[in-house]
Specification:
The complex is a heterodimer of chains A (about 180) and B (about 260). Chain A is α/β, with parallel strands linked by helices and about 180 residues long. Chain A is built from 4 helices and 7 strands. Chain A folds into 2 domains: about 5-85, GMP Synthetase, Chain A, domain 3, CATH 3.30.300; about 95-115 and about 135-185, no CATH class. Chain B starts with 5 loop residues before the first helix and ends in a 6-residue tail after the last helix. Classes of the chains: A alpha/beta (about 180), B mainly alpha (about 260).
Amino acid sequence: MVTTTTPLEEELRRLAGSVPDPELPVLTLEELGVLRSVRLRGEDAVEVELTPTYTACPALEAMSLDIERVLRDHGMREVTVRTVLSPAWSTQDITDEGRRKLREFGIAPPRTRTQSGPVPVPLGPTRTLTGPQDPPRTEPDPVRCPHCGSPDTELLSRFSSTACKALRRCLSCREPFDHFKEV
Amino acid sequence: MTAQPADTRTSLTTVSRETDVPAAAALALGDDALVLSHRLGEWIGHAPVLEEEVALTNIALDLLGQARVLLSMVGDEDELAYLREERAFTNLQLVEQPNGDFAHTIARQLYFSVYQHLLYGQLAAGDGPFAPLAAKAVKETAYHRDHAEQWTLRLGDGTQASHERMQRACEALWRFTGEMFQPVAGLDSVDWTGLEAAWLESLEDVLRRATLTLPEGPRSAPWAAGAGRQGVHTEPFGRMLAEMQHLHRSHPGATW
């Protein structure tokens, strides 16, 4: 589909895209990849489409209000923020600059591979199983510690401070850190 | 379910109310998610370890998000959640069962998350009104399913005490699992027989690896015919609803 954007729409998109994420303020909405479109619906009316990272992302309402404020300050009288689910957001939508900023902020960025969803991790020993097979599984694309860069890290919990992150620990520098999990 | 000034609410359209959405199906799926979300929320402050508290409440939050989208397809989400009577809810009886001990919560999670993951997988593959939500939610439920399976392995293949509790929990909730595969009106593209076969296969595999035994009893009973999907619920559900709805009913229209 070919859509033409006017210079004003480009300007409004740049403004909306520069709004920081309320929970990860180092990232802008553009870098997070959640801003789908900005379209004029009249001289001073604009419609913005946002997609949530997770269905229940509580930051969505704050994002909508922030976008509305920024665009109203730029002369828009009517700002409508719509939430769209399809196509579903993926961590592949985070820009390279976004990944760099996440790492700098102390959060391991999601890996850029095609597979998504939980990564099978062998359990420690249970009653009848001795634990991970020998030799230890070598991951082709390990989650690196955002502090020291070591690939030697372990999963503490699949769920962390927000829905989009998992909690890990570095086995080299011993620091715990958040990992933006792949979806 | 939102906490923001009323005047900003109008500009945030979560999902446009589509007329072609089968309302009964949206309610059935939405009620499953809402009720299980509330049950998991009851673990706040009581989970065995901090990481698990965070995990259970993250799963609850995912489910709440799904419930909000689904209920908003048919009406006002707050009215539907807080002002319906017990008989108007069409969730599965499985999800309303009390948390019990940790093994009961995990068994309930295992039965439901495998079901929900498979069901959303089918809905996401189609082009019906639930496909966009299902495509999103199937990624979330993959984590829920993994969480439940990992705990089932650890508890089943753990100590003698954890093994016994996990087996007991699987047995106790087994009779609520038949209802999951009764076709829901409006979800016509779903292959319910295939869904049930895939669910059973997955359960057999996980329980075997966890050194547990697949329960043998009936998966539903004549007295439970129809059950949750027809608005017939078990005793603990009324008490849960009373707690969930009390604030909204006592202070109508309250904002904060």
